[in-house]
Fold Cation transporter.
Amino acid sequence: MTEETLLKLSIAATLLVAALGIVMGLWTGSRAIVFDGAFSLVDAAMSAVSLLVLGLMKSYALSTARGQKLEARFNFGFWHLEPMVLALNGILLMAVAAYGLINAVESLLAGGRLLDFDLALYYAGAATVICFVMAALGYRANRRLRSGFVKLDAQGWLSAGALSAALVLAFGLAALVADTRLAPALPYIDPAILGLICLVLIPVPAAITRKAIAEMMLVTPTDLRARVNAVARQITQKYGFLAAYSYVARVGRAEQIEMYFVAPADMPARPLSDWDRLRDEVGDALGNAGPDRWLSVTFTADPKWSA
């Protein structure tokens, strides 16, 4: 299953869950279910944006008329959009969860609200099954795809599934205590479970959001820097260069690498084809060749060109 197919399936399933959640939440009077639907709606919107960005990146990489037109207008491609979308997605999901928490506290302070727990239980059960099935599909497919979009989408489904499962537990317990001495607590169950769920959901997108912001800020990734420096030292020692300098960044799925080798001023002249073969050797040593690697290798006798 491709990224595009998985995201399209996810959008369709998310819209279904969102529509059911909002309708059932308003019908039963459950703010927790309305929040579940709203959370899914935001997730669907961001999945659609992710699909659009993914389509742009794939078109740019193809030798088609559209790809050539995009390349002429956007020389550096669309890699920068991936962390932007991931960061926006994570921030929006955390903001929705924070808003849900505020509503939960407000409802608790107002004395809670009674609702139809039987209907709510049916919805929560169906939503739990859909969410966990979609999360399992996403995580399984991403073992091969290794996509930030699919990973965040699968995390969203897992979070939504946990939310729905918590609703099943809460509404089930509420149905059991409806005719007992604990019945006065029933109005507080819905806002209490909403508040707990929001507290759990707020930090879930934090790791991906932090990573995406770091990529937007072009923070140097330590693993990529170490790999590039190791190759630079190897080539410097092998061919007698005076020094090597490297500048690296990871933006979404793209690796951007610039390497400068400083040669002795009296190094014998060599054909350009020799330098090209040396560039190929550097590229092979770095690995990860493909449309998502931006590699520039420069040889100079003047250190100022490496600064």
